[in-house]
Amino acid sequence: MEDLNIKHRVTSYDCGADHLLKPDCFMQYCQEAAETHASANDLGYEWSMSNHLIWVEVQGDFRFIRRPSWKEEVTIRSNTGKASALQARRFVELIDKDGNSIAQADLLWVLIDVETRRPTPFKRLSHVNIPDECPALIDEQLEIATEFSQTATSEFVAPRRDVDFNGHINNSAYLTWVLETLPTDFLPGAAPYRVRVNFKRETFAGHPICIEHRLAGNQTQHSITSDGELRAEVIIEWKEA
Question: What are 77-96's pLDDT values in tens digits?
């Protein structure tokens, strides 16, 4: 596949009170770029639905070198390749007007059978032609802390507004939930620099949600559970704004 390049002007509703792009909005940019790129190669939503399949993101690794500001013109660039027989790997980055890469994402996707909710090997789908070459975009190792100085818990019900086309909670909602419920005394004045999200199981509107927050230095870790099952894990490395 050829690289996808989309010109975008950062809107007010993409930004927080600091007038900078919200981290969860970058996740939404990545999802839209993935669908646009897949559809341009006859692998998008319409194709997957006609084959009783859905594309599901299972892991996202995001790095923010600089978050763009309101009204800033950026280019969303994306390319893809195989990570395994079951996983496609997609890279997305934001490029500023000077050609600098200011935000990056390394994503893993699988094709899920609508009925069985199980991954489908690409070899079973003659139409799927994902390039094998898949160079790394983010090569900086994320060191995961194991000792914590603070913990906190948040509980709520998964809202209907966060349901996407696939009928389950959209992936970006997990990061939104974490950032909205993170205690203010955890990291005042800091901003996300690196975000790793592992998606474990689907979540649906109306389900009870429990988020366990843990603080270790400049890193927070968040386990999102529902009905006693782990749904997603989020790790955030913070840097002073």
Answer: 998 887 788 888 899 999 99
Provide the Cα torsion 10, 12, 14, 18; round to 10°.
Answer: 100
Helix-then-strand count for the chain, H and E:
3, 10
What is the rounded end-to-end Cα distance, in angstroms, of the chain?
A: 37
Within 10 Å of residue 60's Cβ, how many Cβ atoms?
A: 26
Number of neighbours of residue 82 by Cβ within 10 angstroms: 16
Mean pLDDT of the 108-117 span: 89
DSSP 106-127: EEEEEEEETTT--B--GGG-TT
pLDDT digit string, tens, across residues 219-228: 999 999 999 9
**3-class state of residue 178 by DSSP:** helix
Contact 177, 210 (CB under 8 A): no
Q: Are strands 87-95 and 150-157 parallel, antiparallel or unpaired?
A: unpaired
Distance separating alpha carbons of residues 95 and 133, to the nearest angstrom = 22
